[in-house]
Each structure stands twice: as C-alpha cells, then as structure tokens.
Write a structure and sequence with these properties.
Layout lengths: L10 E6 L3 H10 L4 E7 L12 E4 L5 H10 L2 E4 L6 H9 L8 H8 L1 H10 L7 E4 L5 H8 L6 E4 L9 E2 L4 H12 L4 E4 L6 E9 L5 E3 L3 E6 L2 E7 L5 H18 L3 E10 L2 E8 L9 H4 L4 H9 L13 E8 L7 H5 L5 E4 L9 E9 L2 H15 L7
Parallel strand pairs: 1-2, 1-4, 2-3
Antiparallel strand pairs: 5-8, 6-7, 6-8, 9-10, 9-11, 9-13, 11-12, 12-15, 13-14, 15-17, 16-17
Helix pairs in contact: 1-10, 3-4, 4-5
The chain binds adenosine-5'-diphosphate (ADP).
C-alpha cells in the first residue's frame, strides 16, 4: 500500500474520474515532476489523451479504487460523484486521499455543507433538510417564505441537474417528493441575486493558501456560461470572499483547490456551493494566472508548495462551449485572434459541455466581446448574457 508522497522525485497522482478536469490536470502536470494516472470508465474519456497512465474501472467499484490506490502515491478527484464510504475505507487502509473524505463530504452532500457552514457562523440561505413533503418542518418553513423555495437534491446534482425552481407551494411539495426518492432534499429560500461570484482557494498540506482573485460567474438555466475576471462587484465583497474562503478552507481541512460559489445579495455574500477540485470558474487561470488552478491542485495534493495565484493580465473572460444543434468547430474559434481554445475531446452532442474559450485583455468589454466571438465561431449553444 502507498506510503504517501515523497518530498522529491516524481509524485504519482491518481485521479478518480477522467473528465475534462482530469484532462486539464494531465496537461498541467507536465513540467511539474508529477505523473498522473486516471481511473476512467472507458478509453473514450477526455483525460485519456493527456494523462500518463489509464486504469479502466468504475469510480464506485471498490476493486477499481484499490487498483488505483496501489499504483499511486496520492489519490484525488475529477468529480464528487463518489461513494464517501468507499473513500473513507481507502483512508482507513492507509491510502493518502486529498482532499480527505471528511472535507469532500462538504461537496458531495449539500445538506452537510449547509449545516456545517451555518454552525460555523457563515452566511448561507435559510434552509431545511427533509425526506418527504409530509415533514412538519417543511410546512412551517414554506409558511415563512415570501417567494417559492429552491428545492435541491442533497447528493448527486451538478450543472443545475437536481435543482428545481417550483412556481408555488404545491409544485414545491411535488418537487420534494420527486427528489426524495434519491435521498435527503434541501429546501431553501429563493434569494434575489444581484450577481454570482466565485472564490478559488488553493490550500497546501501545511495549511498555507494561495487565493485567486474573485470572478463573476454568469449562469443561464442554472448552468455557468461565462466567467469574468475581475469580478464586477464591490471591493468589500472581494475582501469578504477571501476571508470566507480561508475560513472554509481551514474549517473543512481542504487540500487542493477549494471553489466557493457565492450569491451577491442585498444582505451581502451568501455561500451557495463549495467544490473541492478544480472548478469551472477557474478555467481562465490556465492562461490568466501565474499558476493555473490545475497546477496548484496537483502541487497541493502532491505535498508540494503552492504556486503564485496572481493574474497575468488586467482582464480575462472564459466562455463555456455547449453543444448546439450542429456539430461544433473548435478550429474556427482558433482563427479568432486572441482566443485560447480548449477542446475537451468529447463527441459532439447538443447540450453537452464540449470545451471552453478564454481571452485575456486590458479592457473588460473588449475582452468579453472577443471571447463571445470565439465561442460563437466554435458553435456554442449558449448565448451572450
Ligand atoms: P449545481 O450544484 O447543479 O451547480 P446550484 O445549487 O449551484 O446547482 O444552483 C444552480 C444555480 O441556480 C445557481 O448558480 C443560481 O443561479 C440558482 N440558484 C440556486 N440556488 C438558489 C437560491 N437559493 N436562490 C436563487 N437562485 C438560486
């Protein structure tokens, strides 16, 4: 069994999952003295093209996890759709898992996350966690709201899947019962959002942190379409986001990238979500920061010192590419001057996240315009906000 990363030499990092995040980790690992092995469901997954080694297996199959653990020094994640009991079991058997299972639980389970952050005095939406629409707490909670709630599955949701916006009380009750079949349901107040912002924190094994600058995230249909640096918000919010970011990172014992999504509301920043892996809101850092979020995630989990997270340009815009009715054309996007194109190597399918484009610049509006020029040339389904 592995004894953990050595202070020198090639550290072998195993990644559970082989999607686009693992693909970009594979790219970032070059030159860092790290070797990336992915646990991939098939040879068609995005990270197969960039990593050093591939193990084929299901991320929820204990024997596949064991094979991965035995061939690397440290295990990390491309996604949080994992079985926490299995991850705890790996840890109990001495496997180095970063972030650890108790930290990961904040990303895997939205109910645990809301309860934990509330207990720490951090700002979260008002919420209840229920298992059915007949829970007496739910009635009292719905009575206390002015707007219909947002109903979320506690586990297993992503990119807006598992997040429902019922129009009224009956729909809310039906939404709870619909999601309750899969486990606990988080019911929370619907906030009036001025905007949404995200703070990325890289945290090393020794507890030191590198803070990326705050960004604005633009959502359509509960899915992120665009990320803009600098964030279009008050300086006070940027400071508060850093404080909260550091507080959450040490509260949960994060190692690697911690992403915190915030709602900007009339009562200040409210935490929406935490992720313990490189995050869509940080893809711009590949070109836009001294050290990308992917490099810093790998450095952190490998037990190495963090790189500088400061930006290299005054402005950056990243636009996600989502499959439209016609096949996309990354080549056309590359022809737009100034556009960095990232194609995840996935087969085109309408509605599927296929890649992203990033543009750096001196002027926020011009950077945004060029990024959308690139995204539309690529053939994204999403439209400019
Ligand atoms: P996912 O985990 O699938 O990304 P989120 O919980 O982040 O889902 O919700 C997706 C989006 O839905 C958010 O970015 C926000 O735009 C909207 N949303 C979620 N919760 C609320 C809320 N309580 N009030 C208002 N809007 C919300």
């Amino acid at each position: 069994m592995s004894s953990g990363p050595q202070p020198s030499g090639d550290v072998r990092v195993g990644v559970i999952g082989a999607g686009q995040l693992a693909r970009m980790m594979g790219e970032a690992a070059r030159g860092l003295g790290l070797r990336v092995t992915v646990l991939s469901a098939t040879m068609e997954e995005p990270a197969v093209a960039t990593c050093d080694d591939v193990l084929i297996g299901d991320p929820k199959d204990q024997s596949a996890l064991d094979r991965l653990a035995q061939s690397v020094d440290v295990v990390t994640f491309d996604h949080e759709l994992v079985d926490l009991d299995q991850i705890e079991d790996l840890e109990a058997r001495g496997v180095v898992v970063r972030p650890c299972a108790s930290a990961l639980r904040y990303a895997v389970d939205k109910a645990h996350q809301r309860r934990g952050l509330l207990a720490a005095g951090l700002p979260v939406p008002r919420f209840v966690v229920v298992s059915s629409s007949s829970d007496p707490q739910l009635v009292a909670f719905l009575d206390s709201l002015t707007l219909p709630p947002v109903v979320k599955t506690a586990r297993g949701g992503y990119d807006g899947r598992g997040v429902l916006f019922p129009a009224g009380r009956d729909e809310a009750l039906a939404a709870v019962d619909g999601l309750a079949a899969a486990g606990e349901v988080l019911v929370e107040e619907r906030l009036e959002l001025q905007s949404e912002v995200a703070q990325l924190v890289a945290r090393a094994v020794d507890g030191s942190v590198a803070l990326y600058p705050l960004v604005t995230t633009v959502q359509h249909d509960a899915m992120c379409v665009e990320v803009r640096y600098p964030a279009e918000t008050l300086q006070a919010h940027a400071q508060r986001a850093e404080e909260i970011g550091e507080q959450i990172a040490s509260l949960i014992g994060a190692v690697g990238i911690l992403a915190i999504e915030f709602f900007v509301t009339s009562r200040g920043l409210v935490v929406n979500e935490v992720a313990l892996r490189p995050h869509n809101s940080g893809h711009w850092t590949i070109e836009g920061a001294q050290t990308s979020q992917f490099a810093n995630h790998l450095l952190a989990v490998a037990g190495r010192p963090l790189g500088d997270a400061s930006p290299v340009a005054p402005c950056a815009v990243m636009v996600n590419i989502v499959g439209a009715e016609r096949p996309s054309s990354p080549g056309a996007a590359s022809e737009v001057p100034g556009v960095f194109v990232h194609d995840y190597g996935k087969a085109w399918r309408p509605g599927r996240k296929l890649g992203h484009v990033t543009v750096l610049g001196d002027d926020a509006q011009a950077t945004h315009v060029t990024a959308w020029k690139g995204a539309l040339a690529y053939g994204t389904r999403t439209r400019e906000a």
